[in-house]
Amino acid sequence: MTTELNQHSSHYSLIIGLGQTGLSCARFLLQQGNAVAVIDSSNQPACLDALQKDYPEVVVKTGGIPVDWLMRADSIILSPGVDPRLTQIQQAAAAGIEIVGDIELFARYANAPIIAITGSNGKSTVTTLVGLMARMADKVVAIGGNLGTPALDLLANDPAPDFYILELSSFQLETVESLNAFAAVILNVSPDHLDRYDSVEDYQQVKQKVYRGNGVMVINRDDPIISAMAYENRNQLGFSLHPSQGFEFGLLKQRGHLWLAEGETPLMLVSEMKITGKHNIANALAALALGSVMGLPMDVMLRALREFKGLPHRCRFVRELHNVRWFNDSKATNVGACIAAINGLAEQGSIVLIAGGVGKGQDFSPLMPVLAEFVSTVVLIGQAAEEISRHVPETVQLHFAADIKAAVRLANNVATSGQQVLLSPACASFDQFTSYADRGERFEQAVRELPV
Q1: CB–CB of 410/430 below 8 Å?
Q2: Full-model pTM
Q3: pLDDT tens-digit readout, 355-366
């Protein structure tokens, strides 16, 4: 579809990308009285019908990103899925045209403290958990960003909430300059999206933008890369899977039991949490640190931790069959997430791993030592199967499957009593599925269909 710019040929904000975020940007800018035009490289963008129904006056061009449209804009708003390295966008930037994203716009207009959460893995879990803690403490919170509601739609809340709690992806942070979060955390950093970034260092520097401003920096003391990002002149609060000092959050071992702790004060037994694995213990400690910065009562936060069952497709227990436990970790779309899931379940028994999908330019070699130590069998699916197979140790059984259903049947045949079968793909899903959720649902369906 193409519509001429006509009355919007000068003095307009140009949105590139018409998904949920692009639609929220159009809605927000129009409410601010801005003239808006939208372009999308797809011929049938996801939210085209919704935009035309609600805002028929907005000029839209589909099927390409013409540079002359960019050059005539006052400002360009990039949707997170649009790579800012595109030649047309680089030309517009060189011409001095302002290029922002929805989170930069949000930061300029937010009228309540922001809690900003990013990381390669675990950010949806921590965002949801902090939101639960705050609501149980009778705080009014607006939760969104990369998870759920687009950030700009949260500004429609009236009156303003006590806190905005935002999950932020690296793509959203690329165009951020004004973010000044009340508290911010980078949960962890492992190589991801290397098809989008020129180097791992570029990816890390984008993540670091979440710490801009003068709010409290919540620091993962176990991650040397994140620890190096901490500014000496800023308020910091750390968390660690080891004993911690002062008022920082960590773990204590007492009488053979592991406790979540604040300094030397035990808070609750790790075994009381419904979410499992070391990565989820780290997520819980990060949530406690953020909640304490927000002034949430400790007893309420601990009650939330006891109740929280975790999110779908994130190391979620599916079924036990013949003393074999099945877990759906379809959200593990990178190597770091897969390693975290394996490490998290390793104490409960040997693992049969189902992995594979779209590799996103990742290096799969870090999987080797973890597979060698904790995994008995690997079943591979998808585009990256052959590439991943080169990093499976010889001591580990290796199988290939045509699809997820075949992979589940194969895993069921090789798994023995006391083992765990884990879907943790270390890859994106869009070679065989519409999303990681679709992949996880089809996995769970196949597991449920296994004969007793």
Answers
A1: no
A2: 0.84
A3: 999 998 899 999
CA distances from 67 to 12, 78, 88, 409 (A): 15, 14, 5, 51
- Range(s) of the domain holding residue 19: 6-96
d(CA 118, CA 125): 11
- Per-residue model confidence as pLDDT tens digits over 135-144: 999 999 999 9
Longest dimension (CA), the chain: 75
Total Cβ atoms within 10 A of residue 19: 17
Provide the 3-class DSSP secondary structure of residue 440. Answer: helix
With respect to residue 189, please indicate whether it lies within any of the assigned structural domains. yes
Could you list the active site residues?
123, 146, 193
Question: Would you say residue 1 lies in a domain?
Answer: no
H runs (alpha helix) in 121-272: 123-136, 151-154, 170-173, 200-208, 224-227
Question: ∠ CA(53), CA(58), CA(60), 5° rounding?
Answer: 95
My answer on whether 74 and 153 are in the same domain is no
Domains identified in the chain, total number: 3
Point out the domain boundary residue: 29, 62, 96: 96
